[in-house]
Specification:
The chain is about 60% helix and about 5% strand. With about 260 residues, it is mainly alpha-helical.
């Protein structure tokens, strides 16, 4: 009834905070008197508190953790937060990642979202893409950091690839142009990892091995369209790199 009353008369409030997947799709709500009021959610309020210095980024991350535990839909995940959670997890003697409470909550949360099959709107597809982007940035950061031993980079990358990256069939489940979307996603997932993130020969070789086993290996049964699309995606980058080197002064190119 309180929600019914709110839509009847919002009064003089500056904003209304409602955590609802349908209502939050609109920027404002309008009561019976025709007064429009800004519509926000809990995450909007948390971001505002961070901007105003009321809470710290650590407080913000802790609050998002609690929202995931409560299974609020599409709680955002960025690369710095993911990397922070991974760095706090240790490895056992077999170089397997030992999940912390935060990683376990994140894994179970993402698994629940996919299992109930409610990620079907355009905004949900944006959320799935954001998960992939956060995972890709994190993995490149792990391999490019010389302070992260290779076994740790591999174990943490394995966890991200298995639990954060949305499976291609999940990402295209409710997409209209499934036939075109699948090769594009497969190409993007493969091409991001083809360029070595480290200058160390040893790390580059380890990264290539990880990419072959974890990223490309899952695409081997796919049809030729996927491989063709991968070539199309990386071709502009390769040409750009070659042209950049060709236009550099000789001394800079040699260095």
């Amino acid at each position: 009834m309180s929600l019914v009353e709110l839509f009847s008369s919002a009064g003089e409030v500056e904003a209304v905070a409602i955590d609802d997947r349908t209502l939050n799709g609109a920027p404002t709500m309008t009561d019976k008197a025709g007064r429009a009021t800004q519509l926000v959610c809990s995450i909007d309020l948390l971001n505002l508190l961070v901007q105003r210095g009321v809470i710290t980024r650590a407080d913000f991350d802790e609050d998002l953790h609690e929202l995931r535990r409560s299974c609020l839909y599409t709680v955002p995940l960025d690369a710095p937060a993911l990397r922070s959670m991974l760095d706090k997890a240790s490895l056992d003697r077999e170089s397997n990642l030992q999940e912390t409470a935060y990683l376990r909550t994140l894994r179970e949360y993402l698994a629940r979202l996919i299992a109930v099959d409610t990620l079907s709107t355009q905004d949900d597809l944006v959320f799935l893409d954001s998960l992939w982007n956060a995972g890709a940035v994190t993995i490149r950061g792990l391999w490019s950091s010389p302070d992260t031993p290779i076994p740790e980079a591999k174990a943490r990358s394995d966890w991200v690839a298995e639990h954060v990256f949305p499976a291609i069939e999940v990402a295209i489940r409710h997409v209209v142009d499934r036939a075109n979307r699948a090769p594009e996603l497969a190409a993007a997932r493969a091409s991001f990892a083809l360029f070595p993130a480290s200058g160390s020969t040893e790390r580059q070789e380890a990264q290539r091995e990880w990419v072959n086993d974890t990223v490309l290996g899952s695409l081997l049964p796919a049809n030729n369209a996927v491989l063709d699309r991968i070539a199309q995606v990386i071709e502009p980058s390769l040409i750009g790199n070659v042209e950049s080197l060709a236009n550099e002064p000789e001394d800079d190119a040699l260095s």
